[in-house]
Write a structure and sequence with these properties.
Blueprint: E1 6-15, H1 17-32, E2 39-45, E3 48-51, H2 57-60, H3 63-69, E4 72-75, E5 83-85, E6 89-97, H4 98-101, H5 106-122, E7 128-131, E8 135-138, E9 141-151, E10 154-162, H6 167-173, H7 183-192, H8 196-200, H9 207-222, E11 225-228, H10 233-247, H11 250-253, E12 266-272, E13 275-284, E14 290-298, H12 307-314, H13 323-334, H14 343-356
Parallel strand pairs: 1-2, 1-11, 3-4
Antiparallel strand pairs: 2-6, 3-5, 6-10, 7-8, 8-9, 9-10, 12-13, 13-14
């Protein structure tokens, strides 16, 4: 029997949200370049409201409230919805070669890795279980969200564990419907999420114990050998450059803000099993018979995330009659991995915008 694959284990300490996201990308780039081995990373956050890669800022986060409370706003390199993180959560990430575990597509990868996390959490005395598509729950209440993507042959898959939870702060900075901010509905929101503190009280583990439990879950259910390692100068150097040039900048965070306010933009939306796809469309031609510009936003997961930008570019000058067949062919040719949204969800969103615009 061959030995279990060895995974370096690192903890990058307490950092600002944008710094943590820059380190995520640095690890991907360093791994693809062969500079670092397969790795488990533990992550700690100063208060931050994090957008998903494809979300519109003003639709998801109360920027003024964040500023008043001293909470940074950042944008992830993975898809999904907006989240609030602080010292009461523990982040984890696996960066590895896709052949290391041989888990196949992103859907099965999410299942197997999430089940490993659930097993590690369950060893602490709770009944944590994976819930498709990318959550971990205890008695029907979410305790961890996960997500990831393939970049070439490198996979990043990551999530957070709710150790303690500040619901008031969470709902103050995230753009939740006003009715959810009432006392009654805030209580119902608490019924949909949970944390280790609520479940275990004074038996809540410290971060060292929690990290050890997660490593056990990874070792036993993924068949790997976690070994304590060190952060490399290469990673830190790459992270600092990415932070300064892109991920740490306001331009990166605000690049998708409120496209619906722009003149001549048609808006549409489709809610599918894998999340919400919003779209903003401009038309061209003598009879507005072609797409001119398309922008997709939402909490969907598609891997790699940049495939959405390629899709948007490919739709320029496409006839309105050919939208559905074009999108289907695009995803087939791109060989994209669809953890949540399907090709037809993007076509349905565009068709929704066209109907609302009278086309």
């Amino acid at each position: 029997m061959s030995p279990a694959p060895e995974f370096r284990v690192i903890d990058t300490g307490l950092r600002m949200g944008r710094e943590n996201i820059a380190f995520d990308q640095a690890m991907i780039d360093a791994h693809r370049a062969g500079e670092i081995p397969d790795t488990i990373r533990f992550i700690h956050f100063k208060p931050v409201a994090l957008l998903g890669r494809h979300q519109a800022l003003s639709q998801e986060i109360h920027a003024q409230e964040c500023a008043a409370r001293g909470i940074q706003i950042g944008r992830r390199i993975t898809g999904g919805g907006a989240i609030y993180l602080d010292e009461g959560q523990l982040g984890w990430a696996l960066v590895l070669h896709r052949k290391t575990l041989g888990l196949g597509d992103l859907g099965n990868t999410a299942k197997v890795i999430s089940e490993a996390v659930a097993a590690g959490l369950s060893s602490l005395g709770i009944d944590a279980r994976y819930r498709p598509r990318n959550d971990i729950e205890v008695e029907g209440r979410k305790i961890s969200g996960t997500g990831g993507f393939f970049d070439g042959d490198t996979l990043i898959y990551q999530g957070t564990v709710l150790v303690d939870l500040n619901l008031e702060q969470m709902f103050a900075v995230l753009n939740v419907a006003k009715e959810k901010l009432t006392r009654k509905n805030l209580g119902s929101a608490a019924d949909r999420v949970t944390c280790l503190r609520a479940l275990l009280g004074n038996r809540t583990p410290d971060m060292k114990t929690l990290k050890a439990a997660l490593c056990r879950g990874f070792a036993e259910h993924l068949g790997i050998n976690p070994v304590l390692g060190s952060i490399t100068k290469t990673e830190e150097g790459r992270a600092k450059t990415l932070y300064a040039d892109e991920i740490g900048t306001d331009e990166f965070v605000t690049e998708i803000d409120d496209p619906a306010r722009e003149k001549g933009v048609l808006t549409g939306s489709h809610n599918g099993k894998g999340g919400t796809v919003n779209v903003y469309v401009r038309l061209e031609g003598a009879r507005n018979e072609r797409l001119r510009e398309v922008l997709f936003t939402g909490d969907f997961f598609v891997t790699p995330p940049r495939i959405i930008y390629d899709l948007e570019a490919s739709l320029r000058r496409v006839s309105l009659n050919d939208v559905s067949t074009h999108i289907q062919a695009f995803f087939e040719d791109a060989n994209a991995s669809m953890l949540s949204a399907a090709a037809e969800d993007f076509a349905k969103a565009i068709n929704s915008a066209l109907r609302h615009g009278g086309y």
